[in-house]
Amino acid sequence: MDSLKIVLLEKTGHDHGFEYVLSANPQAVCLASARHPTSVKITDTANGGYQVYFETTSTTLSGELVRSFPQWVSTNNHFLTSGIAELAILLQRAANLSRALPNQPVRRYENAVRDELAALSPETSRTEVERMVRQRIGQQKFREAMLTYWGGACAVTGLALPDVLRASHAKPWAECESDAERLDVFNGFLLTANLDALFDRFLISFDVQGHLLISSAVAPSDQPLLGISQELRLRWLAPEHHVYLQFHRGCMQKHSGKTI
């Protein structure tokens, strides 16, 4: 790579989630970020494209990128892009996912809770206040992670209007055994307000293929009024969703009294 291409790669990384240059030479450009734990190594190819390799502590990033960009998958978890525009898209998605996937939301949550509790006056009754602070910040961080993971669009309809989107837990907040479960981006879905209300009350769920399940408590005549039908399905479903969805379907079965 010549010096002009190296500078172009550094700027592309900076503008798309990889603002630190670890090394840059004619053989490869290596980039990282202070906002997530993933680094990337970029080399050029003979046809003017780029070979991209991500190094990360996340166990799920590679699978999510493969699902998002199957057309760019090479061998050994490398990706091949045809030019700078495709590279920018790949880097931005990798950076976004690296901030949203476990356990990055938990780390940001713990830091935010610590800072807010430290700012309280000594006279403040800590127990109840701490519970409220943890729940408020936790729900905020969960929503942020869900918006990032689903690209700001409903997991079912694709509607991209944040004001009407809700971060819905599959395993409810109060029943989670740890903050890691509560803030796991796979423990729920980003849904429009009507779907969120139904999902939250176990009146709808999703099967192992992501198809919508409707409780027998919802009359067929009410389904069009609620904007639901059995033709609806999740835009995608990761393996990590399944354990939480199994829990949610079990709750739906208990509420409806019908085997799912």
Question: How would you describe what is shown here?
Answer:
There is one protein chain. This protein is of the alpha+beta class and 260 residues long. The chain folds into 2 domains: 3-100; 104-256, no CATH class. It has 9 helices and 9 strands. It has helices spanning 3-15, 61-68, 84-100, 104-118, 126-149, 179-182, 193-200, 223-226, 242-256; strands at 20-24, 29-32, 39-44, 50-55, 78-81, 165-169, 188-192, 204-206, 212-214. Strands 1-2-3-4-5 form a 5-stranded antiparallel beta sheet, with helices on one face. A two-stranded antiparallel ribbon has the order 6-7. It is globular and about 65 Å long. It starts with a helix and ends with a helix. The mean pLDDT is 93.
Tell me briefly what this model is.
The protein has helices at 3-15, 61-68, 84-100, 104-118, 126-149, 179-182, 193-200, 223-226, 242-256, and strands spanning 20-24, 29-32, 39-44, 50-55, 78-81, 165-169, 188-192, 204-206, 212-214.
Keywords:
260 residues, alpha+beta, 2 domains, five-stranded antiparallel beta sheet, two-stranded antiparallel ribbon, 9 helices, globular, HNH_nuc, HNH nuclease domain-containing protein, plasmid
